[in-house]
Amino acid sequence: MKLACTNLMLPGNNLTEQANLLYKWGYDGIAIFVNYSEWNEELHAEILSLRERTGIIPCEFAFGDEIYGHLMDGDVEFRKKSREMYKLAAEISGELGAVTELEFAYGAQNPLPLFHPYQKMTEAEERDFLDMYKEVAEPLRGTKGQMLLEGINRYESPYLNSIKDCKDVIDALKLENTGVLADFFHMSIEEADMAESIKYAGDSIKHVHLGDNNRLLPGYGATDWKRCLDALKEIDYTGFLNLECSTSGDPSTTLPETAAFLKKMMK
Q1: What is the SS3 string spanning the chain?
Q2: Which among 19, 104, 132, 237 has most CB atoms closer than 10 A?
Q3: pLDDT digits over 15-73, tens only?
Q4: pTM
């Protein structure tokens, strides 16, 4: 397994400065999240040459924008714009050999699902979702990039909250360049047993997001990290573990400490 951190958690004036810090602090990769409206060819060139110049691997790429999380939106034009953004992220991920992600929806749910979690898609909704997935993953055909399905907690997505649900969709999809993204924060809300869920998903897990149950750094909450990392070892997971959470203080102190904390259990 390899260790990465999200660029939004890092100090530095640009991705190159951030990658150099990660290398110094004992990390292997960086996950890059870019505001869609700020995308430009200069940034594109910086990302494509980042590994060669810094030794840090761009392991994940995604855009952020108000149209993020609206792949299945009822507004046809809004949905179309969202899908075009995801397809561009897929194209860039293909160039990098990195992962990018999707979900059924992403945003605060209203009304809140207080007493009826784990809602299931109708047959029509599942068919439309699978068709959408194939559409946005198309730019990855013939590359080493991957479009992964991330389980999002019930308060932010109506469907596909659990790792089991995500794996079942991937099994039904039967499409190369796809798989499951296991996010430990969302899993801490939705999974009855995180380690067993990891084992169930098995080799469909292609990337992992790390955050404790309170979305602080690993070790700052109640997650049983050793048991969960042992489960990843049991399924022979060798991909990236990417921090996606609060830095819980000064990152120049907490991120090197977190790297040391995790590496003891990754061996």
Answers
A1: CEEEEEHHHCCCCCHHHHHHHHHHCCCCEEEEEEEHHHCCHHHHHHHHCHHHHHCCEEEEEEEECCCCCCCCCCCHHHHHHHHHHHHHHHHHHHHHCCEEEECCCCCCCCCCCCCCCCCCCCHHHHHHHHHHHHHHHHHHCCCCCEEEEECCCCCCCCCCCCHHHHHHHHHHHCCCCEEEEEEHHHHHHHCCCHHHHHHHHHHHEEEEEECCCCCCCCCCCCCCHHHHHHHHHHCCCCCEEEECCCCCCCHHHHHHHHHHHHHHHHC
A2: 19
A3: 999 999 999 999 999 999 999 999 999 999 999 999 999 999 999 999 999 999 999 99
A4: 0.97
